[in-house]
Amino acid sequence: MRRASISPGINFNMRPIALLILFLAPAVLACDLNVRAHTTELPSSIEWDRYIGAFSYLVTESSDGFVTTRTYEVPTNSFTIPHRVSEVTKFSYRVEAHFETDQVIDGSCRGAIELALRPDPQFRKMTRKVIVPIVGSVVGATGAKFRTSLRITSTTGQQHGRIVFHPAGQASDSDPSIPYSFDRIKQSFAWDDIVQAIGATGIGSLDIVPDEDADPAAPTVLARHYTDAPNGTFGSFEPAVQPFDFITPAGFAVNPPDQGFRLNVGFRTLTTTTVSALVFDSTGHVKDLKTLSLPGDYFTLIPSTQLVGELAPGETFSLSFSGSVIPFYTLTENGTNDPAVVIPRTTNATFVQ
Questions:
Q1: pTM score, two decimals?
Q2: C-alpha–C-alpha distance, residues 138 and 124, integer Å
Q3: In a structure prediction context, what are the per-residue pLDDT tens digits for the chain, which is 353 residues long?
Q4: Domain enclosing residue 188, as ranges
Q5: How far apart are CA 346 and CA 241, in angstroms?
Q6: How many structural domains comprise the chain?
Q7: Are residues 222 and 104 in the same domain?
Q8: If 0-12 CB within 10 Å is exposed, 13-18 middle and 19+ buried, where does residue 105 land?
């Protein structure tokens, strides 16, 4: 009996299955999504070619050459950059197409781009300075002399800029100021009455603003409010704050002190702001709602009763804000006129300095 000879390595029974597999398997070809900036002058978003069959796109972002990254999944072929910067900042982006099963298409369809984000003028104005929300040189209601001392210390060499006093009311670039200039690190300047040193009187806020051609970092600031007394001074320290921490300020509650203290509320606005005050009775139920509208770059300090009225024992109020504002309140002891400033803090992590 003679057997038919077959070629080595060929199994005729398996050939139809192999041909079917080859027919069904898609060809995987590398593709470039052609990632590009939506605008080139001040890029605020990126876009890329739509990939047919892609369910979503994975965007990987880095500002340090992908040593550290942040990822976003987006359903469309565009991505809005979630940052504003005060200095030129480089960002790198990688975009990969995904199937509905959330699997990368073999890494074969992707794109990349590097961008230099340019400073946003409004955000730059908010970040290239620090603010002491309240300062003053004034005689108080009981004849006490209210003053603010200031000490600034350089953190790098060659820092220079202006110290600007914005009196109560709307701030202006022409408000009184004095220059500062350091020629070495850890150098300090100090004033016992900074408002008077600037040539002004009254209350307001203080901006420490680096010059445009200077290091963007402001010096370290130490401010102290005090009142004169026969045996010395009474007072407390106040920190300087960074405006971008108050782009979206958190609300807070205030428990009015006893009659031995005076309570004032103050606002240093960065943008147009609406202040909402909810008044609660002693059982915690809402009793009233008051609102106050303020323009941008504005300072005011008012008795709490001017905002919420006279409160009965056990009643409280809370403040919330629509707009960017540095809120604070002051407590002043009636006997010694010892002042204290409270600045509720909040941090906004959406922006890159």
A1: 0.69
A2: 32
A3: 444 444 444 444 544 444 333 334 444 456 889 999 977 555 689 999 998 888 889 999 999 989 999 999 999 999 998 887 767 889 999 999 887 665 555 556 889 999 988 877 776 777 789 999 999 999 876 677 889 999 999 998 889 999 999 999 988 888 999 999 999 999 999 999 999 999 999 999 999 999 988 888 899 999 999 987 666 677 889 889 999 889 899 999 999 888 889 999 999 999 999 999 999 999 999 999 999 999 999 999 999 999 999 999 999 999 999 999 999 999 988 877 778 899 986 543 333 33
A4: 124-342
A5: 10
A6: 2
A7: no
A8: middle
